[in-house]
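Methods — Computational structure assignment.
A single polypeptide chain was analysed. Its primary sequence is given first, followed by the predicted tertiary structure written as structure tokens.
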Amino acid sequence: MASLIKAFKAVICNKSHKLILFSCLFVFISTFYSNNLFSQENSDCIECHIDPSKCDVKVRVDHVTGDVEIVSMIVDEEAYAKSAHGGEDFYCVDCHADLEDIEGEHYPNLQPVDCITFCHDDPAAEYLESKHVSLMKENGVQPPTCKHCHAGEKSKRDTPRAKDLAHRADTIEKCGGCHEEYYHSYRNNLHGQVTALGHFDTDIATCVDCHGMHTILHSTEPESTLGSQNVIETCGTCHPGANDSFVKHIAHPQYKNIVYYKSAVAAILNIRKDPDQIWSIIKSPQIILTILFIMYVGILLQTFAGFGMHSLLSWLGTILDERKGKDSKHD
């Protein structure tokens, strides 16, 4: 016992040992007596938010758009675990910072989650300063927020990962909601036809794969992902060996767009006043697809018209033979 006391005194008298001892003591006290140094575990939050008797629904007002919606406070554990924020490195209080010092039940109206200030300031700056957003504001269109595009299937909380298949499918519909003309022409393209069948893997191009995510520019601008300087590299991510001939591929064919045909007819009627208009249509690669499509439809119409006429005449011949009381043998 005496030797143990001497050893303890030796530890206390040693400066380095003193520092270690007090550090351990500080950590011990902080762990058990301070609520401000350590965030609550996610399990503490989920314990209530999976129980419908404790959490139900609430009315939420979007602080940007002013839209009112009724949202469920029930957390789907499986969906949340698969989400971008569902890993072990994220805590509920990282987003709901006003609950950091609160344990147990809390007030229902929390502060809106600020995706930009603490975590996603760089992509947000790219997006908010892009010409895409400035053009929307010029046209009086409310730019979509982060949660508009990055929402899970069941909840905005379940922010999907970039390669999540449901998220890739959703981006097509989100972009198409504003760009209806390009949405329909995309569906006429091979990429769009494959995604329409339910295949959204990263080897099938969606809108963001070609046009970018946050800094979206018109294809005529050199800095665009589809600009003359970058288009080969963009296509080459999925198509190794892409070259100048390959990138002439028409991503948004117009041969099924009635507006395209109306503009062509108007250009023909106005050829004397503005011959450049018809020449711009003729020089466009769209004209080749359009001519092939018209020929294809023409062949189909001719084939079915001939078949229909043959069937109609055969039917009439059979009726005439029966009226004459003869056996109906049509050669």
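Note: Residues 1-8, 25-39 have pLDDT under 50 and may be disordered.
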